[in-house]
Design brief:
With about 130 residues, the chain is an alpha+beta fold. It has one domain. Helix content is about 50%, strand content about 20%. The chain is built from two helices and three strands. It has a three-stranded antiparallel beta sheet. A hairpin with a 2-residue loop joins strand 2 (about 60-70) and strand 3. Helix 1 (about 5-30) packs antiparallel against helix 2 (about 85-125).
């Protein structure tokens, strides 16, 4: 006759299941996302006599760029100042997505180990 899980085993499995469900809800709350970084740049122009050549405080800008990797290459996209906050928020959402997925993976591995131990102990008891 198979041995039922101990109260401690049941509690551990239930705690993992609850945390897994919480993380799934966090995934559902994500907004639009994109990988990459939004950069704010101050640039020198090509005019030799311009003050921006000598004084970093007098550089032109700010100019915004969204930078990300695609097929092993860095891609830079110029952004209008009005769109930079949208892309910055989206890249933050992407980092949050990766964090939640990493947590889900670790929790899944732990939960699977608990279930595997339980299945083995049940099989050995038959």
């Amino acid at each position: 006759m198979p041995e039922s899980p101990s109260p401690a085993q049941r509690a551990a499995i239930e705690a993992h299941r609850r945390r897994f469900e919480e993380l799934k809800r966090e995934l559902q709350q994500l907004e639009y996302f994109c990988k990459g970084t939004v950069l704010r740049r101050m640039m020198k122009c090509g005019k030799a006599q311009c003050a921006c050549q000598a004084d970093p405080a007098k550089r032109h800008g700010p100019y915004f760029e969204w930078t990300y990797k695609a097929s092993g290459k860095t891609v830079n996209v110029k952004l209008a100042p009005e769109t930079a906050p949208l892309y910055r928020a989206a890249s933050g959402q992407y980092r949050k997505l990766k964090t939640v997925l990493n947590r889900l993976e670790r929790l899944s591995q732990t939960g699977l180990r608990h279930q595997a131990k339980l299945a083995q102990s049940t099989r050995h008891d038959v």
